[in-house]
Design goal:
Blueprint: H1 3-12, E1 35-38, E2 48-51, H2 53-61, H3 63-70
Antiparallel strand pairs: 1-2
Length: 91
């Protein structure tokens, strides 16, 4: 279903807010939940990488701690390492 089809379906089905009853929703658009970052010292488009928000949270929440412990002036770098394994139920 395209964004236009989803928007028209919301209008044709007369969807409303369960709290206030409003029907003036914004149009449907794509939304990316991944956190964009660059890999390496260069900032070109070939070095783009995407992190899951829960992995980037540790970097963002510990920024002040890392700054105080490592180097008291900018620039400094924070790296993220690790292996992500998915756990899924057996069928």
């Amino acid at each position: 279903m395209s964004n236009e089809e989803a928007t028209s379906a919301m209008i044709s089905e007369a969807c409303k807010c369960p709290v206030c009853g409003a029907r003036d929703f914004a149009s449907v658009n794509d939304f990316n939940l991944l956190f964009t970052t660059d890999v390496g010292p260069g900032g070109d488009s070939s070095s783009k990488a995407y992190l899951r928000p829960e992995t980037a949270q540790g970097i963002l929440m510990n920024y002040h701690t890392v700054q105080n412990l490592m180097r008291l002036k900018l620039p400094f770098g924070i790296g993220q390492t690790g292996i992500h394994t998915l756990v899924s139920p057996l069928t």
